[in-house]
Design brief:
By secondary structure, this protein is an alpha/beta fold. About 55% of the residues lie in helices and about 10% in strands. It has two domains: about 140 residues, Diaminopimelate Epimerase, Chain A, domain 1; about 50 residues, no CATH class.
Length: about 210
């Protein structure tokens, strides 16, 4: 994914390692290109428009049915090609639907990355889905119950602002440090503090 260079990925990984050295909690950062393929969207729109195309031709021309059918088929195929790029087909999906897809992907990653299995239930996921313009923090109950309401959303707002300004790496590092501050406050490092989860930025293709 082009959102981060190799140097920026290393910087984010270093931030996770440094932050976790001050806490027994765990932070996992995940970024995905898209939370859904939305492959159905070009077919849906192309089919709807192709169904409308024959009506004016039938009512206002003397065109043969065979030609109308060929035009309808051509419109269908051309629209699929035009609407196929990820950015186009994603943009045709209502914002509420995109948000639900991203939230579901975040919840899946919380489980896939085993954040729910950490000692003390202190795992925190920082999740970004690029195509949906969605960022989210999911904290396990051990740490979530100890921070004021709205804390995670405030961190998310800062993260999305930095991404919007073209500084995604800065946004992630700041988010990691702010999450780490709350983890360190409530869950300082112990005498035996195994590193249970990966410290590198996890990048999903979509």
């Amino acid at each position: 994914m082009s959102l981060f260079s190799n140097e920026e990925r290393e910087r984010i990984s270093a931030a996770i390692s440094a932050t976790e050295s001050n806490t027994s909690g765990e932070i996992v950062a995940v970024v995905t290109e898209s939370s859904s393929s939305y492959y159905y969207v070009p077919f849906l729109w192309a089919a709807l428009i192709a169904l409308i195309v024959p009506w004016p031709l039938i009512h206002f021309t003397w065109m043969a049915v065979q030609w109308i059918y060929l035009i309808q088929l051509l419109v269908f195929l051309v629209l699929i090609a035009v609407l196929w790029p990820r950015s186009v087909r994603t943009g045709l999906v209502p914002r509420s639907v995109r948000r639900r897809h991203a939230q579901r992907r975040a919840a899946q990653q919380f489980l896939v990355q085993n954040l729910h299995t950490t000692a003390g239930r202190t795992g925190v996921l920082i999740f970004v889905s690029v195509a949906e313009h969605h960022a989210e923090i999911i904290a396990d109950q051990g740490i979530h119950a100890r921070v004021p309401e709205g804390t995670w959303q405030g961190i998310v707002d800062s993260l999305t602002r930095e991404i919007g300004l073209g500084r995604p790496a800065d946004g992630f590092v700041q988010a990691i440090e702010r999450v780490g501050h709350h983890l360190a406050e409530h869950f300082p490092p112990g005498s035996s503090d195994p590193n249970e989860l990966p410290n590198h930025l996890i990048v999903l293709d979509g």
